[in-house]
Design goal:
By secondary structure, the protein is α/β, with parallel strands linked by helices. It is 23% helix and 26% strand. It is built from eleven helices and 17 strands. The strands form four sheets. Strands 3, 4, 5, 8, 9, 16 and 17 form a seven-stranded mixed β-sheet that branches. It has a six-stranded parallel β-sheet with strand order 12-11-10-13-14-15. Strands 1-2 form a two-stranded antiparallel sheet. α8 links the parallel β13 and β14. α4 packs across α5. The two termini are 39 Å apart. 46% of the residues are buried. The mean pLDDT is 96. The structure holds NADP nicotinamide-adenine-dinucleotide phosphate (NAP) and zinc ion (2 copies). The site of NADP nicotinamide-adenine-dinucleotide phosphate has 30 residues, from α1, α4 and α5.
Length: 360
């Protein structure tokens, strides 16, 4: 059972959902004081990930209310613990999904702490001190320095925020499946939302031929124009799906709702791989024939480790990659969440928590 401890004396203003209506309301709460391994961060921006919506509405049945969502956080360091010397006051930093891990298991020692069995998340987790974690829809966050990354100086803090979850969640499986440093592959991205649009940008930056597989014909022009996709397949158009059979080496599926993997798997070449990063609340349909006739694989992937998050950030700094965002004020969070639920966002909402400090 979560509890409050004596060192939770820092009063923070934030926004929380209190029940499965998902409605977000202002919420004042306490955080721990900055410990020796912590940095305290003034939050500037926080992206609205579809995961926030799943948690706010208790889609997965695991929400502990009140939940303060937000794990695409950028801000400025305002306090540094004695062990957190790699950061200093004024540093531009980011916090993603991870708040803590055991630091000892095979995954933690190999910089894959995202797969630690004792992982604690930035919100709706229970921290080592027994307290529920609260995320970035708040003006201040206290984070263990081992789960904080530096933001390159040339990148703006608003459009970089979604890289902390959407970005690393698509970067990690691309790297893990040999799509980094091996240009010229045929890559598919299913679902052109927050995760999907970053995947397209990374795919192009890494030199691949990128096909978007989408339910939204209205996204085609932008996908090919601004985002640089090479092809666009409407997943509900059986002729287009048929024409795309056996054409792709690798597919990243970012869809947030239940769908059938069968038709999508048919787009893979023999021995191709589909990595599922979308997290629908219902089991997906996975027919065996497209798997066995094409010797195809289906895998999952969950965010990324901190070392590779920093690697991704630095790469984005070199290539000038940021996200396409709609910046909103905190009073617009509910409207934004409604629009996100209706698939009406290009391509990520980002909350201006501090109010117009984007030039920092
Ligand atoms: N694995 C991880 O570590 C991780 C990390 C972050 C998020 N996630 C999960 O990834 C999913 C996507 O997150 P997001 O923030 O990118 O969401 P998003 O911005 O809402 O994008 C999801 C996209 O999926 C497509 N889509 C939506 N409903 C659909 C339906 N019924 N059938 C087919 N396609 C549909 C839409 O693209 P089109 O209009 O192009 O069809 C939509 O833009 C969520 O479930 C989220 O919880 C997982
Ligand atoms: Zn997320
Ligand atoms: Zn561990």
């Amino acid at each position: 059972m979560a509890k409050e401890t004596q060192n939770h004396t820092l009063t923070v203003s934030g926004w929380a959902a209190h029940d499965s209506s998902g409605e977000i309301k202002p919420y004042t709460f306490k955080r721990r004081e900055n410990g020796e391994n912590d940095v305290t961060i003034k939050v500037l921006y926080c992206g609205i990930c579809h995961t926030d919506l799943h948690y706010a509405k208790n889609d997965w049945g695991i929400t502990m209310y009140p939940v303060v969502p937000g794990h695409e956080i950028t801000g400025v360091v305002i306090k540094v613990g004695c062990n957190a010397g790699k950061f200093k006051i004024g540093d531009r930093v980011g916090v993603g999904c991870l708040a803590a891990s055991c630091l000892e298991c095979e995954f933690c020692v190999n910089s894959q702490e995202n797969y630690c069995d004792q992982i604690q998340f930035t919100y709706n987790g229970i921290f080592w001190d027994g307290c529920i974690t609260y995320g970035g829809y708040s003006n201040v966050i206290v984070a263990d320095y081992r789960y904080v990354v530096h933001i390159p100086e040339n990148l703006p803090m608003d459009s970089v925020a979604p890289l902390l979850c959407a970005g690393i969640t698509v970067f990690s499986p691309l790297k893990d499946n040999g799509m980094l440093g091996s240009p010229g592959k045929k890559m598919g991205v299913v679902g052109l939302g927050g995760l999907g649009h970053v995947a397209v940008k990374f795919g192009k930056a890494f030199g691949h031929h990128v096909t978007v597989i989408s339910t939204s014909p209205s996204k085609e022009t932008e996908a090919k124009g601004r985002l640089g996709a090479d092809d666009f397949i409407i997943s509900t158009n059986s002729q287009q799906m048929q024409a795309g059979r056996r054409s792709l080496d690798f597919i990243l599926d970012t869809v947030s709702a239940k769908h059938s993997l069968g038709p999508i798997l048919e787009l893979l070449k023999v021995d191709g791989t589909l990595v599922m990063v979308g997290a629908p609340d219902q089991p997906l349909e996975l027919p065996s024939f497209p798997l066995i006739f094409g010797k195809r694989s289906v895998k999952g992937s969950m965010t990324g480790g901190i070392r590779e998050t920093q690697e991704m950030m630095d790469l984005c700094g070199e290539h000038g990659i940021t996200c396409d965002v709609e910046v909103i004020t905190p009073d617009m969070i509910n409207e934004a969440m409604d629009r996100l639920a209706k698939n009406d966002v290009r391509y990520r909402f980002v909350i201006d928590i501090a109010g117009g400090t984007s030039n920092l």
